[in-house]
Structures are given as structure tokens and as C-alpha cells.
Write a structure and sequence with these properties.
about 80 residues, alpha+beta, 2 helices, Herpes Virus-1, three-stranded antiparallel beta sheet
Length: about 80
């Protein structure tokens, strides 16, 4: 089951579980659409995989299986401002 991480690990922008701006790779590294498109060119800096839109968990399922609250922030070279 996806963790639905709450933030972009590049810029730390909030990404609530229903965000259409969340992008993930196959290992669930999570980025906002802006960082994924402009800084990372659609490629995960951790594994080299594609960054795709994260699916939305339906509200009833979100109540039973809540999103993660653990924030992940990593010092990627592409994210350095």
C-alpha cells in the first residue's frame, strides 16, 4: 500500500493525500509536480525511474488506511536553489 508521503522531498512543499500535484517513482520517492518537471526532468534522483502522478486514495479508504505523516527531505543536487 502506498505511504502517501506528505511533502516534496526536494522543496518540502505540502502534498496532502488528495493532491494532484504529487509525483512518485516506483520506490515512492515523492516530489511536487513543479520540482518533478522543472528541476528533475521527470526522473527520480534516487533511483533514476520515471516520476508519475500519485494516485488519489478514496476518502473511505483514507479513513481506514491513513496517509503517512513522516516528512522526507533529501539534499539532492538538482534541488539546490
Amino acid at each position: 500500500m502506498l505511504a502517501l508521503r506528505p511533502n516534496c522531498e526536494c522543496c518540502d512543499a505540502d502534498l496532502p493525500p488528495d493532491s494532484r500535484a504529487a509525483r512518485i517513482c516506483t520506490f515512492e520517492c515523492t516530489f511536487c509536480a513543479d520540482c518533478a518537471d522543472t528541476r528533475l526532468n521527470g526522473t527520480c534522483p534516487n533511483c533514476g525511474g520515471d516520476l508519475v502522478q500519485r494516485p488519489i486514495r478514496p476518502p473511505a479508504m483514507l479513513a481506514r488506511h491513513p496517509a503517512s505523516t513522516e516528512r522526507v527531505l533529501k539534499p539532492h543536487q538538482a534541488c539546490a536553489a
